[in-house]
Amino acid sequence: MLIRSEALADQLAIDRLLKNVFPTEAEAALVRALRENGHNTLSLVACNDDGEVVGHLMFSPVQVGETDTGVQGLAPLCVHPDYRQQGIAAQLVREGFDTLNEFGYPACVVLGDPAYYSRFGFKPAADFGLRCKWDVPAEAFMAFEFAQGAFEQASDEVAYCPEFDAL
Question: Where does the N-acetyltransferase domain lie (predicted)?
Fold first, then answer.
């Protein structure tokens, strides 16, 4: 399985994948809007041996309080149903973490299943003094620091890019 940065030629395949994996076309529209508006910090794809895109992960900036701290939001993450249970999503997340850390981003947040995301080191965002802009279950909003103490000066409400409000 090859994990690499999204290329322009991958965009239609990513769009098809998102429409196939999620129950509505909202995530596909979100990814397109994030790209179009310059809110795509990192987009990774997983390709099978035939070069087909079978997995996708995107990171976009979030705002903590009134400042841009460089914190990134992980969303969406998906793998084609025929390729699940092979560790592809985990490979995407780990590669994403490595890349963001290498480029100096301090931390990441995610809104998702705590049982799944905790295995990557995500902790409840409330442990860092963070709360989500939306009314979501506290345990589902999580954070991960690439740099120790990344949230010490940034505890506040976290707002995703405006494109997420359409979801």
Answer: 1-143
Q: What pairs with residue 109 in β-bridges? A: 73, 143
Q: Compute, in degrees rounded to 10, the torsion defined by CA atoms 115, 116, 119, 121.
A: -90
Omega before 76 within 30 of 0, i.e. cis: yes
Each as own residue / partner, the long-range contacts of residues 27-32 (CB below 8 Å, 24 or more positions apart, any chain) are 27/76, 27/78, 27/167, 29/166, 30/75, 30/76, 30/163, 30/164, 30/166, 30/167, 31/56, 31/58, 31/76
> CB–CB of 60/73 below 8 Å?
yes
pLDDT one-digit tens code per residue, 60-108: 999 998 877 899 999 999 999 999 999 999 999 999 999 999 999 999 9
List the CATH code of the domain at 2-164.
Answer: 3.40.630.30
pTM of the model: 0.92
Alpha-carbon distance 123 to 149, whole Å? 14
